[in-house]
Design a protein that fits this description.
Elements (H helix, E strand, L loop, with lengths): L9 E11 L2 E7 L2 E10 L7 E8 L2 H8 L6 E10 L5 E7 L7 E5 L4 H6 L18 H4 L3
Length: about 140
């Protein structure tokens, strides 16, 4: 873990899954409520490329859709940690059923940047292609 990660900007996230193919989730990110439709795109790069569309929800709409998730929920704290070249590491520390699990993700402006990226040592093992670590899979456990 990076020393002092607790001082970086962070927010509590609660997200539930309505569907996993394509992924349709509702998320409370702090005081923001979002519906996301996400599907994996094929690419020749070693990077994982997803297409996402987000829609702002009211608190009431979020609560109604959340009730349809039938327990398929993930709860975590996300820390936003600056990296070199203007990138940001999003460190997720999970709670409840996944207490103790920590995952980190970086979003890149393009696949070339992703292919050139050398992660800091604190990132640990790369589980990007292991479906067990997708939030949509974790929500089903």
């Amino acid at each position: 873990m990076p020393e002092g990660y607790e001082v970086f900007p962070h927010a509590e996230i609660e997200q539930g899954y309505l569907c996993t193919s394509p992924t349709v989730r509702v998320r409370r990110y702090g005081e923001r409520y979002i519906l996301t439709v996400k599907e994996r795109c094929s690419t020749a790069s070693t990077a994982i490329h997803n297409r996402e569309e987000e829609f702002v929800l009211s608190r009431e709409a979020y609560q109604k859709l959340r009730s349809k998730c039938e327990g398929r929920m993930v709860v975590k704290t996300r820390y936003r940690i600056p990296l070199d070249e203007g990138l940001t590491a999003e460190l997720d520390i999970f709670h409840d059923a996944h207490e103790g699990l920590m995952l980190v993700e970086v979003e890149f402006p393009d696949t070339r940047s992703a292919d050139r990226f050398v992660p800091p040592a604190w990132f640990g093992m790369d589980v990007s292609r292991d479906p067990r670590y997708r939030n949509s899979c974790l929500a089903l456990e």
